[in-house]
Amino acid sequence: MKYPDSIHPDFSARDALQGVDPLQISRWSPRAFTKSVIAEADVALLFEAARWAPSCFNAQPWEFYVSTDKTFDDYLNLLVEGNQAWAKNASLLGFVVVKKTFSHNGKANAYAEYDAGAAWMAMTLQARQMGLYTHGMGGIKHDEVAAYLKLDDDHKVICGLAIGVAAAPTILPDELAAKEKPSPRKPLSEVLRR
User: Residues in domain Nitroreductase (predicted)?
Assistant: First the structure.
């Protein structure tokens, strides 16, 4: 299903990037969400896209724990207070977890978090294609999340996530509404070294 884009930031400066896929350019992390339901089939589609991300030894060390229903408030309470204020209107909340060792040999997987980032980006681009937005969060109660999810020592909580339909910034408190726009990118010269 294609969800409506209820907010249209000014991407004119970014539109000059000829040749870059528009999904990349239109991706940003809003805090203003319209409380809406994402169909279960669409939730599955989002994370099906993540499933196809590349990973070292094809270990696919990521796990996405998500809630759209009766555990939503539990997940919300595992975010720091500042994130709870806006994430309460998201359609889906979740956490990215990685397995710290390879299943095939039991050795430490130094690339698990890198691989989880690839899965996150694949899911995020799928969300944009569907008219949804994602917002990753470092502001979570890591130890409490691990306890709530009953994770063993071979798993690590990486971050939280919110997914939903973007809303107008006016639904946010003034200090957050003022920040509600796509963040600038560093110049290419700062990230591409030759």
Answer: 26-79, 81-164
CATH number of the domain to which 117 belongs: 3.40.109.10
| Residues in contact with 109: Cβ distance below 8 Å, sequence separation at least 6, in sequence order | 56, 59, 61, 98, 99, 100, 101, 102, 115
DSSP 173: -
Total number of domains constituting the chain:
1
Compute, in degrees rounded to 10, the torsion defined by CA atoms 187, 120, 155, 75: 110
Say how many Å lie between the first and final Cα of the chain, rounded.
Answer: 43
Do the domain assignments include residue 16? no
**Domain that includes residue 104, residue range:** 29-177
Q: Considering the entire predicted model, what is its pTM?
A: 0.92
Q: Kindly report, residue by residue over 44-59, the tens digit of the pLDDT.
A: 999 999 999 999 999 9
